[in-house]
Amino acid sequence: MDQSNSGKSPSIHPNAYVAPNAMIYGDVTIGAHCCIMFGAQIIAESSPVVIGDCCIVLENAVIRGTQDNPVKIGDHCLVGPHAHLAGCTIENEVFIATGAAVFHGAHLQKGSEVRINGVVHLKTLVPPNTTVPINWIAVGNPAQLFSPDQHEEIWKVQQALGFDQHVYGLPRNFKGSRMQYITKAMWERLGVGDNG
Fold it and tell me: pTM for the full model?
């Protein structure tokens, strides 16, 4: 299903396939020979999404362009079922497996892979032909790879990246309710009504 957002409608190459219940919303460009499968959602929330040629987006994947973080996907990429991409850059020939997550400002270079349930954190650079193993986490620039049981080591790298500031605009020394600020900011950004 195609929908416009702020007067911008999707641009889908005529020979791309979009499943009947896939959702394509806003300033989204999909290249030639792409296949967007059932339940996939590609949303230009407040930045565009550009998908190159010969890409496969499988069932129930979510790709979202977020404020100040467009999504750019190169050619010959695969986004697995239930994967989640937000405001990131994916170069050519990248494989993103089932359940993987790639966050705001991340950059996966040519030929890299994120395996099942792998995570690429905020502002992380994954070098060419690098693999993020099953359930592992990539953090930093260049990426450091951590197993899921290394939370403290991950947090040491991740904390300096400023997730709340980068993604939600939360001021660094904010003293009020963090979640009240975040939900209000998201309500306004999504443009769904008055949150008076």
Answer: 0.88
